[in-house]
Specification:
Layout lengths: L4 E11 L2 E11 L3 H12 L4 H5 L7 E9 L5 E9 L7 E6 L9 E3 L2 E4 L6 H4 L1 H4 L4 E6 L11 H4 L2 H17 L5 E7 L3 H10 L7 E5 L29 E6 L9 H11 L3 E5 L21 H14 L5 E4 L4
Parallel strand pairs: 5-8, 5-9, 9-10, 10-11, 11-12, 12-13
Antiparallel strand pairs: 1-2, 3-4, 4-8, 6-7
C-alpha cells in the first residue's frame, strides 16, 4: 500500500478585487498532486471577459450588422444598446470623421477594435445609448478604400447603402420607431446629404457636430467640395449644429458655424468647456472632438433625439 506524502499547497480565498493565499500542511495522495496544481493554475487566471471590454464599449451590448451590396462590396455597422435598458424606440446612425472608415471587429457582443476608436462619436457612444436610444456606427462601404470620400458621402449611393444598413438594424430591433442621423467633422457630409436623398418621413432629424464650416480650404488641406456653398435649408427635416466655441481646426471655425446657423435658421448649440487638448487640432483629442466633455455633449444629443432639437443656446460643461 502506497504511503501518503506530506505536501504544501496554497488555499485560495477570492473575492472581488481581492486575492488571499494561505499555506497549510496537508497529507495528499501522490496522484492528487497534479490535479491540485492544475486547479491552482486555472484559479490564478484572471477573468478574460472583464479585462477585454474597452472603455468605449463599457455597459453596451453590441452586434455587427452586415449587408451585401451589388458587385461584392459590403456595408457594415455596429448596433449598440445599453445593457439592462428597455427596448429602444430611437435609432441614431453615427457618421464618424476622417477618414470615416471604421472596419469594426465585434467579439462576444463587444466592439473590441476598429480603425477609428478614438473618434468622438465612437469613443463616446456609450453616453448616448440608453433609455429609448440605440446607436448604429456606420462604416464606409468596403470598396471605398482607406478613406470614405466626401464625393461618395454626398452621393445617392451613400444614402442607398446606409438605408439598407438601417433596414437590417431595424429588422434586428423592431421596437425602433424613428431614426436620427448624427455626423461629426467629415461625417457631416453624410448627415447633410443622406437626408437630402431620402423620401419624406424616412428620418426624424439630423445633427451636425463639429461640422465642416470652411470646406474651401487652401492647400495642403483637402477641399470638401460638396459642402462649398451648401444650403442647409434644403434638408427639410429637424436639424441642429453642435459646435465647440474653441474648435481649433481650420476646417471647422466656430465663427463660420454661427454664420451658417443664422443664414439657414438652424439651431446652434454652442459648447464651452474642455479637457486637456492633445495632438493635432483637427483630430479627436481637442475641442474639435469635444475632449473632456463628451459625456455632456452626448447627453445633450440624447435629449434632442427624444425631445426635439430646441432653439439656439450656449452650454458650458465642466470636463470629466
Amino acid at each position: 500500500m502506497r504511503s501518503d506524502r506530506v505536501r504544501w499547497y496554497h488555499r485560495l480565498m477570492v473575492a472581488p478585487g481581492e486575492l488571499v493565499v494561505s499555506c497549510r500542511r496537508l497529507r495528499l495522495p501522490r496522484r492528487s498532486g497534479f490535479l491540485w496544481f492544475a486547479f491552482l493554475a486555472l484559479a490564478l487566471v484572471p477573468p478574460v471577459a472583464a479585462q477585454e471590454i474597452p472603455q468605449h464599449a463599457q455597459g453596451l451590448s453590441e452586434r455587427l450588422v452586415t449587408v451585401a451590396l451589388p458587385g461584392g462590396a459590403v456595408q457594415q455597422g455596429v448596433l449598440s444598446t445599453k445593457i439592462g435598458a428597455p427596448a429602444p424606440t430611437q435609432l441614431v446612425a453615427l457618421f464618424p470623421g476622417v477618414p470615416s472608415v471604421v472596419r469594426p471587429v465585434v467579439e462576444g457582443e463587444v466592439m473590441v477594435r476598429s480603425s477609428l476608436t478614438g473618434n468622438f462619436l465612437i469613443r463616446a457612444r456609450r453616453h448616448l445609448a440608453g433609455g429609448a436610444v440605440a446607436t448604429l456606427i456606420v462604416d464606409c462601404r468596403s470598396d471605398q478604400g482607406a478613406e470614405c470620400s466626401a464625393a461618395y458621402q454626398a452621393s445617392k449611393q451613400r444614402y442607398l447603402d446606409v438605408a439598407q444598413l438601417i433596414e437590417a438594424a431595424r429588422h434586428q430591433m423592431p421596437s425602433v420607431i424613428s431614426v436620427w442621423l448624427v455626423g461629426t467633422s467629415l461625417g457631416t457630409v453624410s448627415s447633410a446629404f443622406v437626408p437630402l436623398h431620402a423620401p419624406p418621413g424616412v428620418f426624424a432629424g439630423t445633427i451636425h457636430t463639429a461640422t465642416i464650416t470652411n470646406p474651401n480650404r487652401p492647400p495642403p488641406f483637402v477641399r470638401v467640395e460638396p459642402l462649398i456653398g451648401f444650403d442647409y435649408r434644403r434638408i427639410g427635416i429637424p436639424q441642429a449644429v453642435i459646435h465647440h466655441i474653441n474648435d481649433p481646426c481650420p476646417a471647422t471655425p466656430f465663427a463660420m458655424a454661427q454664420r451658417i446657423a443664422e443664414a439657414s435658421g438652424v439651431p446652434l448649440v454652442a459648447i464651452a468647456g474642455a479637457g486637456q487638448r492633445r495632438g493635432d487640432p483637427c483630430e479627436a483629442q481637442s475641442e474639435h472632438g469635444f475632449i473632456g466633455v463628451e459625456r455632456s455633449v452626448m447627453q445633450e444629443i440624447q435629449k434632442m433625439v427624444t425631445g426635439g432639437v430646441g432653439v439656439s443656446r450656449r452650454l458650458e460643461f465642466k470636463p470629466d
